[in-house]
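Fill in residues.
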């Protein structure tokens, strides 16, 4: 008769191995490190209880290496008792939102640079893409920015062009 490996009375499996528990603790400690690295404004938006938030705030203030490591270890321990999936979901959503904002910003920069480099052909392509754009205003901004760049003056018109593009091309909310 074979022994049942899942029967705790026989000395078999009685939960995760020590190695698995250590890996799980390391993952939670890494999540704690991410929380400590977040700005205060983002921490305010996360669903954190008071004890965990106080531990994170204290970890931000500790400068000694050993003390900071112990505090991060404590944060990992506190996270073991929390629903970290909800917390991870909120953090992932915020990361995605930042990436989308950066992508939209980059797209606007590319259009500005293209307009300044190519002039009228790029403007025609942009107007075809965005018919509500005032082509005459854009042409004036492009020409002024090109003159500023040629004379070495500060790029005030290029900034105004960027703002105008941002107002026109940026979605009301970042999109995926």
């Amino acid at each position: 008769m074979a022994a049942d490996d899942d029967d705790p009375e026989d000395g078999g499996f009685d939960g995760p191995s020590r190695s698995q528990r250590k890996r799980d603790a390391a993952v939670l400690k890494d999540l704690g490190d991410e929380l400590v690295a977040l700005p205060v404004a983002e921490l305010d938006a996360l669903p954190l209880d008071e004890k965990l938030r106080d531990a994170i705030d204290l970890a931000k203030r500790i400068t000694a290496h050993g003390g900071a490591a112990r505090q991060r270890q404590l944060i990992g321990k506190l996270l073991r008792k929390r629903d970290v999936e909800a917390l991870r979901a909120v953090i992932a959503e915020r990361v995605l939102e930042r990436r989308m904002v950066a992508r939209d910003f980059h797209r606007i920069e590319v259009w500005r640079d293209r307009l300044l480099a190519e002039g009228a052909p790029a403007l025609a392509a942009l107007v075809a893409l965005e018919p509500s754009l005032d082509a005459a205003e854009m042409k004036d901004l492009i020409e002024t920015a090109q003159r500023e760049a040629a004379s070495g003056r500060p790029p005030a018109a290029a900034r105004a062009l960027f703002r105008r593009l941002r107002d026109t091309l940026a979605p009301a909310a970042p999109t995926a």
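The chain has eight helices and no strands.
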